[in-house]
Amino acid sequence: MSGTTTAAAALRRRAAGAGANRWVVLVVLCVSLLLVAVDATVLHVAVPAVTEDLRPGAIELLWIVDVYPLVCASLLILFGTLGDKVGRRRVLLLGYALFGVASGVAAFADNAQVLILARALLGVGGAMIMPATLSILRQVFPDRRERALAIGIWSAVAAVGAAVGPLLGGFLLEHFWWGSVFLVNIPLMLVSLPVGRLLLPESKGSGQGPWDVVGALMAAAGLFGVVLGVKRLGGGELDGITAVPLVVGAVLLVLFVRRQRRRTHPLVDLRMFARPAFSTAVCCIVLAMLALVGLELIAAQYLQLVLGLSPLETGLRLLPLTVAAMASGLAGARMLRRFGPRRMVCFGFGLTAVAVLTLLGMGGEDNAPLLLFGFVLLGFGLETTLFGAYESMLSEAPPEQAGGAAAIGETSYQLGAGIGIALLGSVMNAAYTPGLSSVQGVPASASAAAGHSLGEAYEVAGRLGGSAGEALRRTARDCFVHGLHVTLLVSAGLLLLGAVMALRLPRVMQCEAVAVEVPAPRDVMESRVSA
Known about the structure:
Elements: H1 2-41, H2 47-54, H3 58-86, H4 88-107, H5 112-140, H6 144-175, H7 180-183, H8 185-199, H9 213-234, H10 240-262, H11 276-306, H12 311-358, H13 368-396, H14 402-432, H15 444-450, H16 454-464, H17 466-501, H18 521-530
Helix pairs in contact: 1-5, 1-6, 1-8, 1-18, 3-4, 3-5, 3-9, 3-14, 4-5, 4-8, 5-14, 6-12, 6-13, 9-10, 9-14, 11-12, 11-13, 11-14, 11-17, 12-13, 12-17, 14-17, 15-16, 16-17
């Protein structure tokens, strides 16, 4: 009798603890995500200081900046599926530890090679952390309505991290040396590791069959090649060094898909893509990022090079975009319940297209109210789209495949961003360069050099000086604004295509009954002791 009473008490404690602790778990997961998101952008403002101190070559400097997102994107599927197999909390805690160690190595790097290695290790740690946060969130919030609210908070934190990175980096560089942008991670990780070990619940997939090591390595190598090739395309590199990894990566990914289809216990259950909501949500994530990441990069260049704003002023001008994205994330759960995934994602794409068309008013002179209005619409529309797509994708995936599904979503995000930079960068260059082919009084060689970018055009104009230099500078600025307008129109077209694609999403948000309570870690220990 006493055993039954004890068991019943344990069950009551477990139910109460699950209700209270799942929101604490969300806080821990959001802190993890914040660090990873900040680290993706915090180095951007520190590049000049790193260059002055370490004197890296051009290729080394490129790798210092790019190796983190490249490695992170390549390993998302590997560590997402490994978490399904051996435990998502275990992979997350290991990611914490590696992220902290790599941050210390990066902070005190005394040459470019050590910094590149440290940034690569940060990418490995980020790849462990990112899919684990989403998959644990999927496990901790089995009720879809609460999960939608949790994903909204999670996505709002991601938006904050991306915006805070450059601002935090700028603040630290004004008071400390460039290594401080990495050193700030260490105390946060030292807190997150024991807190995560104490509070985060462990969860796994079905555990059937061995983990496909060969498939995981094929996926990692294939994604590395594709992402590397896409990044080089975005930089205007069209040589064999771009083509070879792109082709080899694509071949490896095709072989990976064939291998998964033949296996009894695949690493990634490709049958998820047979579900219209899942495959459509993934495509919406790719298309949203494809249309907007390259555009955001071009907008930052416009603010600095055309309007002459400082990096800090540029960050402040883009801040309303982040604030609007946060507001959308926090309101997303209510919007999803009221309007359903289909109307929500269609509305998000449509609103973002309106924002892009509004920004066609950008010209050679500053128009702060127009930019404020356009960036607010842009942030709200983009986050509405991504929230609806992520929530639909994660809800359609079986719980035992949560890590793989989260990894697919994050990989789609990274690939869409890379392809967007390549595609919209190419559109921008195609619209910008022809106008500089024949500027009166400017030699052909100088015009050709100015056609590479607006920043290079300003450098050439400065060397020329006089009326010729001023003519080149004015023409290059006008051509850049023209290219920006063409790019905006292409982006609007892609966004409207996304709105049409989103019509395949479910009309209503289907909330299934919750049959399983998620135990709080401490209550699990108590119930085991009682038993």
